Amino acid sequence: MAGRFAPSPTGAQHLGNARTYLLAYWSAKQRGQRLIFRVEDVDSPRVKPWAVQQSLDDLLWLGLTWDEGPDREGAVGPYLQTQRMSIYKRVLQDLIAENRVYPCCCTRKDIQNAGSAPHFDHEPAIYPGTCAGWKHGMPLPEAGTYCWRFRSSEKVFEFDDRVLGLQVTRPSETLGDFPVTQKNGEPSYQLAVTVDDSEMGITEVVRGNDLVASTFRQLQIFEFLNATPPTYAHVPLVLGKDGRRLAKRHGDTRLSTLRSSGVAPEQIVTWAAHSAGLIGSDKKVAHVDEVVPRFSWLNLQRDDVVLEDDWSN
Q1: Low-confidence ranges of the chain (pLDDT < 70)
Q2: pTM above the 0.90 mark?
Q3: Domains in the chain, please, with CATH?
C-alpha cells in the first residue's frame, strides 16, 4: 500500500496545498502505508526551475516524511515525470494501436464556440467530437498541429470516495473526449498521472474536491491498462473570505514566505488539524505525528474551509 505527495512545480506551495499534504500524510501513517514523493512537471511551459527543491523544503519544514522521492531513491523511480517520458510514450503507442485515441487539431476556442455545456464544476465545454472520425492507420496531420485525444467511454463509471461518497457518471455524456498529450507530443496530466499511479503501486490518492472529473478520466485509462485504480479522497478546498480559491488577492499564503517570516510549522499543522475537525479548537499540535492516532476520514469536516486569519502579517 502506498500514498503519495505529487506537487506540480509551476509555482510556490501554499496553505491549501499544505492542508491536503497533511491529510494525505495522516491517512497514510494511520494505515501504515508507504509514501512516495513524485514531482508532476510535465507542464513544461509553466514549470519553475526553483519550485522542485522549494516544495521538498516546504514539506520537510512541516515535519512530513516520505519513503521514496527525488531526494531518496527507491524501487519505483525516477520521481520526476520529465524523467519518465519513455514509459508514457510506450502507453501512448498502445492507445494509438487500439484506436482509443485520435489526433485532434481543434483549439480551445473551437471547442468553446461549439457551446456544449460541461457537467462538472471547474470544467471546460465538452469536446464536440470534430476530429473523432480518425481511425488507426489513417494519415496524421502535420506534426505540432494536433494532440492525441482519448475516446471517452459510454459505460457508467463509479467510485466510492472517502470524503464525498459514491460518485457516478457516464464519461461520454458528462466529460467528453479529453487530451492525453499536448500538441508538441509531450504527455498531458491525465496520462502521466494515471500511468505513474499504476506503475508506482499507489493505493490511495488524496487531492482537492475540484478534481473529481479528472478521476473519472483517469479511471478510463486505468481500465485500458488493466490496472486497479487507487482509492480516492477528494478533500475540501481552502478558500479566501470572498469564497474563491486561494490566490495573491487573499494575501501571501506561500509556505516559503511563511517559513522565512518566522511562522512556526506547528501553527500550520494545528490550523490544518483543527479545520479538518480532527482536534478541538483549544488543542495545539507540537508535532505532525501527534495527529495520526486521531485521524479518521469519517470525522473529516466536509465543507470547504474559509481562511479567516491573515497569515501574511
Answers
A1: 114-118, 247-251, 310-313
A2: yes
A3: 2-83+236-253+263-306 (3.40.50.620), 85-192 (3.40.50.620)
